[in-house]
What we know:
Layout: H1 2-22, E1 26-38, E2 43-53, E3 62-77, E4 82-98, E5 105-123, E6 128-149, E7 154-164, E8 170-180
Antiparallel strand pairs: 1-2, 1-8, 2-3, 3-4, 4-5, 5-6, 6-7, 7-8
Amino acid sequence: MRNALRLLYVALLLVVSAALARADVFSGLDVMSSTVVQQHQSSFSGLGLRARVKSARIVEGIDFLPYVEYWRNSASVEPFGITTARKDATLGADVRFSFQRTGWKPYLGAGFGLHFLSTEVDAPSLGLRHASDSVIKGGLSGLAGVSFPLSTHLDNFIELKYHHLPGFSQLKVNWGLAWGL
């Protein structure tokens, strides 16, 4: 059932992306690296990719941002032979409003993401062999950031993004490059 839900969500995302590309509203692509702090965890790194979609029919400065983000964190406690791994693959979309100004541009946004969370533990010394748990959770997100132009079609950005997932909430500091048309 979970695999069918994942496949359906990816297919829907691809169909929507293809329709938007045909409608000539694709306006750019962002690649980012994240420092992630998940509830009850230390910080670690993640990666993300998102498209930027604009429509002439919508208010100037509004972008729709379908995205995919991924992070994985693992730990090993050698004297005890314990290894753990947590990971999150997220598919979602944000709506962002960029304040119009010359030079750097601040922005605010909100959205929704579907998180595919998984945890694995191997602790044979404690009688726990290859235990794992997976859960799919939907959660709201909020973001605030600023972009700095590097050239006509290339910007650098830094942002703060919060994903509200009860028991798994995440705060991310994202930075990356944005390529625009």
